[in-house]
Amino acid sequence: MSKGFCSLGVGKGRAFSLFEVILALSIVVVVVFLGGKLVNVSAENAKSMEEARGVDCALHALLKGMRTDFESVVMLDKNQPIFEICARDDGKGIAIFCFATVADNGEPSVTRALCYDVLQLGAGKVEVSRILLDATTTLSLQGALANGSSFKKFFDGADQSCKQVRKFDTVLSDFKIRAAVKKRNGKIFMTASNERMIFFGGALAYQKSGKSLTVPGELIFLDVTLRAFQGRDAQKFDAVASKDRAKAKDFLFANSRKSFGRISFNGTNF
Predict the structure, then answer these.
(1) Alpha-carbon distances, residue 48 vs 74, 190, 230 (angstroms)
(2) Closest Cα partner for 113 from 95, 129, 89, 137?
């Protein structure tokens, strides 16, 4: 062995200093650590993507069901309301009413009274339920409407045994619906989102600035927008909402999963 040759040398190669050995080991540790981090990040991304797909599927399923119902809205004569959006008694949300042709024991030709109950549980938390009256009670409702009653009053007073209720599992972060009326001059009038309104007798009636207004025309479609958070985003939203409501609103629209549908009315007149 030549003079001054480090004992860490191997064969006839260059000797490695203690510093170089420590540096090499440090690099190995860093590579292993970063590799582990990348594996964790990859696993988290895969989990997030899977959760996002689940949220998207739930939104699309809810929107698909609403589309099926609203496309088959029955257009009643005798100035009876065929479509109505009103406020819930507690002020926390809206209720959407109509008559629709739905399947019953395999027969897709039964007219039923239908309600979508949209309950605002809190900021960024909306629960949706679908309430269907049985055929006999639906006939009673048509008579009640002809005598000046309302969808909401009748639904509230109907016995629970007459109702088929489905509460959807997905809690939404936001729910928006607005109606479009084609006026006699061919122009389209759109209501504001979730605006209280009723369509009957060939005209849409609604309130604006305390005044009752009407728009004669044909009810032609609905725009429905559903949003929902993934779990982690829901937690972040709660944290933001507790401090700044304006920022929370921006966060909601920027980070919610979204499903939008323009639903045309294809129902028949009775």
Answers:
(1) 42, 37, 8
(2) 137
Q: What are the backbone dihedrals phi and psi of residue 88, each rounded to the nearest 5 degrees, phi first? A: -70, 155
CA distance 264 to 73: 10
Residue 192 CA: distances (Å) to CA of 86, 111, 148, 196:
13, 28, 26, 9
Picking from 159, 194, 172, the residue whose alpha carbon sits closest to that of residue 256 is 172
Distance of alpha carbon 190 from alpha carbon 214, whole angstroms: 12
User: Are 191 and 74 contacting, i.e. CB atoms less than 8 angstroms apart?
Assistant: no
Q: Which of 72, 166, 216, 136 is nearest to 144 (CA)?
A: 136
From 256, 197, 247, select the one nearest 226 (Cα to Cα).
256
Span 90-146, pLDDT tens digits: 888 999 999 998 876 666 678 899 999 999 999 999 999 999 999 899 999 988 988
Alpha carbon distance 268, 56 (integer Å): 32
Give residue for tokens 């001054």.
4
Note the pLDDT tens digit of each residue in 170-214: 999 999 999 999 998 999 999 999 999 999 888 999 988 788 899
- Choose among 82, 63, 217, 219: nearest CA to 138: 82
Task: Specify the pTM.
Answer: 0.80
Residue pair 204/198 in contact (Cβ under 8 Å)? The answer is yes
**Alpha helices, DSSP H only, in the chain?**
18-71, 135-146, 151-157, 231-241, 245-255
